[in-house]
Design goal:
- This protein is 42% helix and 18% strand.
- The longest helix has 30 residues, at 89-118.
- The chain has 9 helices and 10 strands.
- It folds into 2 domains: 6-81 and 225-311, 3-Layer(aba) Sandwich (Glutaredoxin); 89-218, Glutathione S-transferase Yfyf (Class Pi), Chain A, domain 2, CATH 1.20.1050.
Length: 314
């Protein structure tokens, strides 16, 4: 059984950057598998049972999807140094979870929509990429006139959010919660970082006080990654056994353990669910198992929040 951390990601994925930052804060050694940013993903989907979004963290034959579930697992396995520093880590954990819902959804949507419309000629925005993202979001691909209008619309929403972050940092603190870096820094950093990545230059809209904080966060790096091929990662899964499922607490309306289910994001990417046998479920987490000829038996883990689980007929 392999205990190596294998991150399936791509370079300009802001959600992958959030996880890479946590790996850096913890000083962890990990294997890096670069996956395509667009479909098809023939060496990734066999691991996840159908789920297409990045990143995913593979540990042997267990695959953790969604940054919330990935980071929860990293903190459980490697509690020191903690990503919740300070005397009241329980309250900080809850507050950061709420903060993350804002940055993962609203802030990320505004930063990406603004920069993709303002810099629609940047190298990242190939026709294949734009078509893939339109399909992922279930929307038509916008024309040039629409993009310019959308850039202005998103900038008006982005400016007040940038002012909130500036207000947090105005007292000269080193990090969001004070002198120690935390998950809060990672969850605010990644939607701002992606603007530079997509535009191919430093986004002028980011104020200097935020830029200085971003440089301090980035200085922690990404831990100690080494490259790994996707085929080698599939071989690791095939030669490993999944860990025993976590204890379950089935709630009203939940499918039963052993049912064939689909687990689907509730926001976007709903056309690409993960499908398999439900092996664990409670108020916080979901897990299913599926078997693929390239991976053998794999357990795929999700957070409960942000995902729906549905029993499939037959």
């Amino acid at each position: 059984m392999s205990s190596a951390l294998i991150l399936h990601h791509y370079d300009f994925s802001n959600y992958s950057e959030k996880v890479r930052l946590v790996l850096g804060l913890k000083g962890l050694t990990w294997r890096s598998v670069e996956i395509p940013p667009t479909l098809p993903k023939p060496d990734y989907i066999p691991l996840t049972g159908g789920y297409r979004r990045a990143p995913a963290l593979q540990i042997g034959a267990d695959v953790f999807c969604d940054t919330a579930r990935i980071i929860e697992e990293l903190e459980r396995r490697f509690p020191e140094p903690t990503i919740y520093p300070g005397p009241d880590s329980v309250a900080q954990r809850a507050f950061t979870a709420g903060l993350e819902r804002w940055t993962d959804a609203t802030l990320t949507r505004n930063t990406i929509n603004y920069i993709s419309c303002e810099h629609s000629d940047a190298d990242r925005f190939t026709p294949e990429f734009l078509a893939d993202r339109a399909a992922l979001l279930g929307k038509p691909e916008p024309g040039l006139a629409h993009r310019k209008a959308a850039a202005i619309k998103n900038l008006t929403q982005l400016r007040p959010q940038l002012s909130w972050i500036s207000d947090i940092l105005h007292d000269g603190r080193t990090y969001i919660y004070g002198e120690a870096p935390s998950l809060a820094d990672c969850v605010i950093y990644h939607p701002l970082w992606v603007m530079d990545q997509l535009a191919g230059e430093r986004a002028a809209v980011i104020p200097a006080v935020i830029r200085q904080w971003m440089e301090r966060v980035a200085a922690h790096g990404h831990g100690n990654p080494t490259s790994m091929t996707a085929h080698a990662a599939l071989d690791v899964a095939d030669s490993s056994d999944p860990l025993p499922p976590l204890p379950s607490q089935t709630l009203d309306g939940d499918p039963a353990l052993g049912d064939t289910v689909s687990i689907t994001p509730t926001d976007y990417g709903r056309a690409n669910p993960s499908v398999g046998t439900l092996v664990a479920i409670d108020a916080q987490r979901l897990a299913l198992q599926h078997r693929n000829e390239r991976t053998g038996l794999v357990t795929v883990h999700f957070p409960r929040f942000g995902y729906s689980v549905r029993a499939l007929d037959g």
